[in-house]
Amino acid sequence: MKNSGRVGGLHREKVLARSALGFLAAFLLVTLTFSGAPMGAFAGPLQASGSPSPSGSGGPVTTAVKFLNPSPAYNPHLFPEEGEGVIVEDPKISDKFDGTDNAYHIVVGITNPPDNLVAEASIRYEGENDVTIGELSPVLGRPNAYELFWDIPDGLPSGSATMFVRLFSQTATGFQEVANDSVAVDVQHVNDPPSEAEETAALTWPTQNGEIGFYKPRGGTWRATVEGFTSAQALRYQLFYSTTPLGQAPKYTFCTGQSTPGAASQSRKAFTTQCTLAGQDVPTAITAMGVVAEDIDLLHQGRIETLSMDSADVHVVRPYVQAPEQMTISLIPIPSPVDNNNLESAGRARTIADRCLSYLAEVKDHLGRPVTGANIDVHAEGPDDQLRFGDDDVSAARAPGTYKVPDKGGHSTENGANCSNQPNGQALGSQGDHNVPGGDDIKHRESLGGTGVSGSAGVGQWEFYLYSQTPGFTNLTAWVDDESITDVKEQRPVDSDTLDPGEPVATARAQWYSDAPTLEFVPLGDTAAAGTCNEFLLKARAGTAAIPGVNVDLHAQGPDDGLDFCDVAGGTPRRAPDEGEHDGEDGGESTEQEPSPKSQHTEGETNDEGNMVVGVVSPTTGDTNLTAWIDGEVGFDDDEQGAAADEPVAAATMSWANSSGDATVTFLNPSPYGGANTISKKTDADATYHIVVRVDAPSLVPGVEL
User: Residue 294 and residue 239: Cα distance in Å, rounded?
Assistant: First the structure.
């Protein structure tokens, strides 16, 4: 029931008229409730109680129940124009699709739950009888939390109502009510006019009674990564948490700041963001977390008049502290915002010299969850002393405010490079330099606020640039330079700016090309007996420099579907592609989804010499066409052939024969190439003339007669 001075649904007057038929339907379903027993024990959903008010507790005072969702504790209210004050609203109940389903999530916390507990929820409209919602189920692994996903019946009226939860304990004489709670709510339906259906939100991480990790950098605050969805029209969302023991009235605190979900996809918007705890709050005290959707409810002459908090979701949680020694760190090459001369698909960790590469250092905990605020140090070495970290005077993600020059570890300070214009390399920013006599100096930077705090990189990530004017290789080493704490109120110790034993570490290698990359088959064509395994060599080069460790995909097609890849001595390890649409064949290859003859598809990486060695075999005679392309870095390839300008391509032809009559012989000496076909008996090393011929199917030709 509404209290005086409080505002219910924004369209309540309309709701009263539309609800008349709904009220009548509810009256027709009235049944009497047996005294002291849960309504659901004798009646199904939508059945009404004969009593307009809840009974007394009648049970032990040590048992209590309180709504976690819905609850006025997450402060649903309007944000009106400045100077109009705050208008409080009742919690919204909406069954609009929240990204996971259309059900409304009811959650309660219980103090000292009795044995054989039955928890039942109901709803009552002003002047009417209770309508049973259903029986709540215990949250798995949390006996003092119960929940119900409510599929709101179409016939239930919209508008102001009161929701009840009652706890019953089964005794020898029947059910006895031991505790109850109620909350005023505002019900809205998806079958209402679109302007009246409230927006919704759902948490996907933390899960219900799931673990959630928190981390606090030195001098910072505790943060956790939260994921979920909002309905497609939600404008924003707010995260909140409670430190109140379950069963007591929750006191929710908003995580710092409001957030905007991503673009709508599949009738929902996704979000992955930080929850920063307020003040002196610590993660070990957190009992529940939630999210509430926000939307514009009124527009006036094109201006936002009111921004309301709509429907919410709440999960009970099990918080833990993320420990540095249990973390993992990865170095991820990402597309650089600057023009890399169309070489992006040829490898994110590679580009033409005098350009920039971009990396993410990503930190996760022992559960694979992002860590926000971890301090990262990175060393970069080679190809010479002129290597520099990059800065961007356009993008905030790589502005000087996202990093700092380490203040420990013994180094000098020098200029970084500007990566936001062409040509690159102009002085911008700074970096540490560790002098290495007789070798390449080691360049050093560290994050300023930690992963996910400095710049615009994602949660648990820190982005940095690299620049080299010289072709060659750069070796990268990144580590989490933080110490553990034994108490959540303890200040984290100062970092050392050195890689110490036990600190999570990752390594990577970048390459700077002298020329655009190429891919070549050796030989370009060949002939062999059907049924034999014939070897091909693929060479990935940038000028004359090898391109090691790059992903190469290979198609082979014809003469029929019996064609197969085969293993040759010294061959490159192969695997079936894991991206794109293919039909599985075995661990080494798959087939394309196309008419016969279908293409065989395999992939692998070049060795340290930039080479890939493969074999093909056909049981029948005819021709095989081979096509290969450089598909980028391992783990970032898509197994699909792109434009030749982006992904260097090579082609070759293989002919399969049955007899020597299918073979061809070609003179190599004498040869028309290089001059006249002159045969001389003048003495060179000796007085004989050297005749050389080439046979394209040596396995079929026992000898050659002149």
Answer: 11
**Residue 197 · residue 152 · CB < 8 Å:** no
Q: What is the average pLDDT across 12-33? A: 36
β-sheet bridge partners, residue 311: 92
DSSP 486: S
Q: Which of 450, 454, 434 is nearest to 442 (CA)?
A: 434
Structure tokens at 394: 């356009």
Q: Coil, strand or helix: which one is 396?
A: helix
Q: Is the peptide bond before 559 cis (omega within 30 degrees of 0)?
A: yes
Q: What pLDDT, in 10s, does the model give residues 446-479? A: 998 899 886 667 889 999 999 999 999 999 999 9
| C-alpha span between 134 and 39 (Å, rounded) | 9
- Higher model confidence: residue 459 or residue 680? 459
Poorest-confidence range of 110-114, 183-187, 701-705? 701-705
How far is the C-alpha of 435 from the C-alpha of 403, rounded, in Å? 21
* CB neighbour list of residue 431: distance below 8 Å, 6 or more residues apart: 388, 389, 405, 413, 414, 415, 416, 443, 444, 445
Comparing C-alpha atoms, which of 157, 167, 158 is closest to residue 135? 167
Note if the bond before 400 is cis, omega within 30 degrees.
Answer: no
Distance CA 179, CA 169 (A): 10
Which residues touch 520 (CB under 8 Å, ≥6 apart)?
538, 539, 541, 650
Specify the pairing of strand 268-276 against strand 87-88. unpaired
Q: What is the pTM of this model?
A: 0.81
Please name the residues in contact with 223: beta carbons below 8 A apart, sequence gap of 6 or more: 214, 215, 216, 274, 275, 276, 277, 372, 373, 452, 453
Of 515, 546, 530, residue with least CA distance to 621 = 530
b/e string for 688-698 if b means 16 or more Cβ within 10 A?
Answer: eeeeeeebbbe
Q: How many CB atoms lie within 10 A of CB 174?
A: 12
For residue 402, which of 414, 416, 413 has the smallest C-alpha distance? 416
- Asked if 331 and 508 count as a contact pair (C-beta separation under 8 A), the reply is yes
CB 348, CB 636: distance < 8 Å: yes
Kindly report, residue by residue over 638-671, the tens digit of the pLDDT.
888 876 566 899 999 999 988 656 667 676 677 7
CB burial readout 528-548, b (16+ within 10 A) else e: bbbeebbbbebbbbbeebbbb
Map tokens 């006191």 to a residue: 251
